[in-house]
Amino acid sequence: MRQSIMIRVAMLLFAGLALALQPAVAKEKGYARYVLGTLSSPTPGPVSGGLLLMGGGDRNIDSLKWFFAKAGHGHIVILRASLGPEIGEEFFRDVGGIQSAETFVFANRTAATDKKLLASLRRADGIFIAGGDQSRYVRYWRGTPVAEILDAHVAAGKPLAGTSAGLAMLGERLYGAMDGGSITSPEALRDPMGAANTMEGDFLHIALLKGVVTDTHFKERNRLGRLFAFLAKAQAGNAADQPAMLGLGVDESAALAVEPDGSGRIYATEPSGGAWLVDGAALRGVAAGGALDAPRVRVTGIGAGSVVHLPAGTVERPTFVRNYAARAGELAEVPRWSLAIHGGAGIIERAAMTADKERAYRAALDQALRAGGAVLDKGGAALDAVAAAVRVLEDDPLFNAGRGAVFTAEGRNELDAAIMDGRTQKAGAVAGITRTRHPIDLARAVMDHSPHVMLIGPGADRFSVEQGLEQADPAWFRTEERWQQLLAWRRKQQAAIDPTHLFGTVGAVALDADGNLAAATSTGGMTGKRWGRVGDSPIIGAGTYAKNGQCAVSATGSGEYFIRESAARQLCDRVAWRGESLKDAAQATIMAVGAIGGDGGLIAMGSDGHPAFGINDLGMYRGSMAADSPPRTAIFVDEALSD
Question: What is the pTM of this model?
Fold first, then answer.
């Protein structure tokens, strides 16, 4: 009887059934080995490629079954650098459906050249890399046969899985945690190019993760900020024509199963579990030293109903598309698109404004915002949105632009306008035109269909006809109120504009869903203007300016002073070169205009989608609107919008 038992035990040892070998030779060979199952049994099904990217935490059973099926329900090798056979036991006993689970726990780099270990890796149907300390994996495996075999395993069409640290090391570039710590989002955002952000390369070379940086425990540990920093440092020194890298963060309750064609789907143990895809385009060229400054970084959510395509980074049916701004070591979500408008500034006091007139102004501003917002909400360009908003104001006789423009000393309506594209920095402007119904459309035509930036007077009128733009009899622009203002000016030989609308000019600034800025301005100028006077509105850099990555500006006021201060360009330069916030730059610029005697206001849009308003008068007709935010309007100086 005893002899029979001994024989049976020997047979079990030989077959490797339910065996957990103790690491008796760990010190000599640099690893411990644990085996469950029968290593010699044939693999039941076909083996096919795939990547299982797990965010850490509890392992999703359905995703593991997907992984085991990819491995033909055969032999799984588990690699780790700490702890013991726990994962192998979970795979073999709890999940089941595989022939064996063989675990190697590395103690040092010596193990990476062990012939028996390497042989097990080569014959594995699937390889699973456990969590722990990824710096050990880098130190133990980089430049060794283990790394070569992992690359060859994937290239041969066999599945590879990683969780936590095991996933963090799979991308083309990886955070190695080589200083013994684990950098947090606040630390990484404060100094993305610093020594603590230990980005490593030339480790694994997996085609489906080329150009990808991975991270784990994502939502639970608030790791979005550090993934931004990873991408910033990973792309340092990359050529300008090199594609932007992607960041892929996976939640603890999720696993991303990627097919050999690159299509990936989420398995999640919680309804909200998923992955986050970060577009690194806005994180290129980050300067060393100081906090990360990235005004608009696009992040796409991948949920249970989504399909992501790697390494391209396109996502079908995303759970969300958000934009984030990083500034001064902090992250903030910014709107998908944003729009701000103005309708002129002046001595606007509540006591002097009738209720009916206030309602009329607010209704007109609301209509203009909705016109521009409709363009942006459909994915339209900022350039089209600012033109749409301004056209509404040009048709409204309440405003000094288009219909309702003031008269010159000779009793004519002479109209000015400008538009600028922040993406290309192309611009178009017109001055002294008399027959184009929408002057902003003529400014756009100059930009799009001529080699020039500004056309004036009769030549601009002729160009308008050639372009087929809508023409209007000069009587169209005339209103009795403006005519009476001219007569009063002639009697007194001074400006007699309604003080509640002292500086007419309308304008709009916008940021679209692609991150492009644009600005547009249109005006009738000043009552009683002479000698072909032109103000700041059509002068690029004075009353109108836009540049991606900085800001878009439209001004209104005593134009000569805005010209002398190069107000619009000055505001953007304050943001770009002095590092001022948009709000501070807007206020400082309007105060600089005031310091030399100018009055008025301006609106500005930042790359983060937040508008700013600068006023040194008692009021400015203005409004703002953003994706998922309704139109809001203001008139008096003490009313707040987004500033």
Answer: 0.78
